[in-house]
Design brief:
Layout (H helix, E strand, L loop, with lengths): L4 H12 L3 H5 L8 E4 L15 E4 L1 H4 L9 H8 L2 H15 L27
Antiparallel strand pairs: 1-2
Length: 121
Amino acid sequence: MSKTSKEKKHMDSVAQLGCIACAKLGWYDSPAELHHIKDKTGMGRRSSHFEVIPLCYVHHRGEWGYHTSPAEFNGTYGSQRELLEQTLEALSIEGCKCGCTTKKGAVDKTNPFSGANLFWE
């Protein structure tokens, strides 16, 4: 399925956040690839291009990644739905290029991406 312009912009905004799992460990600005969350999508189907979270290779497909051990990953970092909510919250602070969220102000110190104020200076 081909992506729309809005989907491409959204996915770019998510990837620019850096890996959410690394950020939770205190490592900010890790290059990220996108993971389509698997939540009630059914066999062989994936979620929409707006339901993606940023993960580095190691946390996505590597030794400690979601695809290697989903249960262990979810137990360590939270459910995919929780990570998606945190990602969308980060975009609402930063503002998403596609316009799905607009910049709304102060940094939320509970947001994993805000630890080093990397995106909100």
